[in-house]
Amino acid sequence: MDNLLNDTGRTSSTPAREGSMTKAIEHQTAKIPSTYFLAAAGGAVVLSLGMAVMSEKKGWANFVGNWVPSLLLLGIYNKIVKTHGSDAQEARNLH
Question: Domain extents for the chain?
Fold first, then answer.
């Protein structure tokens, strides 16, 4: 097993364990299909563009447009949790 750096900068042969709150969040997050985040980000782009073209309040269009990177990042987090989350790590440790 590769050595990992801990908080003190020294190497440790055991990876850090996730807390129960993190495991609960990952368990719930993994239930959401990744496609939903991509669709929500695409919808925010279309809504923002529509608001920018049709509305005089450009600030709201920018506000909605700023949701896009956050939604995409949540989608990436979702995908990472599904493939490398604490559940996957525990399953590998059992084998």
Answer: 31-87
